[in-house]
Design brief:
Elements lengths: L1 E6 L4 H9 L5 E6 L9 H11 L3 E4 L6 H6 L1 H21 L3 E7 L22 H16 L3 E6 L2 E2 L5 H10 L5 E5 L2 E3 L2 E2 H13 L4 E4 L7 E2 H11 L7 E5 L8 E2 L5 H5 L8 H12 L4
Helix pairs in contact: 1-7, 2-4, 4-5
This protein binds NADP nicotinamide-adenine-dinucleotide phosphate.
Length: 284
């Protein structure tokens, strides 16, 4: 049985992995900041050497873009140096590292979906620190998979909760939703299915893993959430622009590597959303 170390286990993606990975198939070791602080090189190395996982999945990160902008050192400490610590420790015991990354490593200015062969060109501190983490992985490791995703929902507070909570609250009549950014909503379950494939199989490199079937802005996303939950008409959606200079931001990822290496792509985003809302009511 393979031993899998899930780093950042209580975050959105970490919790989704623990919920959806088959614990009969793998021995899961789950840690968070209070167990192992990834910015502490000695702690990471010691934990890696004692537990000797076959696969390390790094879901830890400093993930709030505004907090990254306000605390630049901390952003690079967690998203770059923390990842370096995991990468060198994993390499030293020949473990595989699966690093979860983001669409924010791109410049958000394209007019077509970004594939894995496009150059990173992040504009935010969050994106730059995540890109720096990716570079450490590619420079230090031989057995790695970088999985980039976007707009993950399904565990913990997320956009789907925000829309449905607003629709369920009789005191709330309207909700502002951003129309500037276009990306692909991806269910945590679909993302975990992709990550699961990388645990056992020797597919290495950088992979995009977002739901298929096109993209949307948050307004279109919210319309679809209300529709799938049968709550159309319960909430008025107000389109707003949120980026600093009102510049449109485009961060649609193309799952080119999954497609051209013959791996299964995630479900269509509208189907995955319907499945999630049918199974859970949409609020977890
Ligand atoms: N959610 C999305 O939509 C999305 C989309 C694309 C990519 N991603 C990527 O997926 C990864 C996980 O995202 P998420 O949404 O699950 O983030 P999250 O909910 O913010 O979880 C991040 C986890 O990392 C932990 N952490 C922070 N600093 C740490 C440290 N120094 N040592 C150990 N653990 C630390 C946090 O613990 P504390 O809470 O105690 O700080 C938290 O449990 C990130 O790398 C993110 O870039 C997420």
């Amino acid at each position: 049985m393979k031993t899998i170390w899930i780093v950042g286990a209580s975050g959105h993606v970490g919790s989704a992995l623990i919920k959806h990975l088959d614990c009969m198939q793998y021995e899961l070791i789950e840690t968070d900041k209070e167990d192992v602080d990834i910015t502490n090189e000695e702690q990471v190395t010691r934990y890696m050497n004692i537990n000797r996982p076959d696969v390390v999945i790094n879901c830890a990160g400093y993930t709030d873009p505004q907090a990254c902008k306000d605390n630049v050192d901390e952003a690079y400490k967690v998203n770059a140096v923390g990842v370096r610590n995991l990468a060198q420790a994993a390499q030293s015991i020949e473990a595989k590292l699966i690093q979860v990354s983001t669409d924010d490593v791109f410049d958000l200015a394209a007019d077509r979906p970004y594939n894995e062969f496009d150059d990173m060109n992040p504009t935010s501190v969050y994106g730059k620190s995540k890109a720096a983490g990716e570079r450490f992985v590619t420079q230090l490791m031989t057995r790695y998979v970088i999985v980039r995703s976007s707009w993950v929902y399904g565990i913990g507070k997320d956009f789907v909760d925000d829309v449905l909570n607003a629709a369920n609250d009789p005191a709330v009549k309207t909700l502002d939703v951003n129309i500037n950014r276009r990306a692909v909503p991806t269910s945590a379950k679909e993302l975990v299915n992709v990550i699961d494939e990388f645990i056992d199989d020797d597919h290495y490199g950088i992979y995009h893993a977002v739901c298929s079937g096109g993209s949307c802005n948050q307004y279109e996303y919210a319309v679809e959430i209300l529709k799938k939950a049968g709550k159309e008409g319960q909430l008025e959606l107000i389109p707003v622009t949120e980026s600093e200079d009102n510049r449109p931001e485009y961060s649609v990822l193309d799952n080119m590597m999954l497609r051209i290496t013959g791996l299964e792509e995630p479900l269509d985003w509208k189907e995955a959303l319907a499945e999630y809302i049918n199974e859970t009511g949409g609020i977890e």
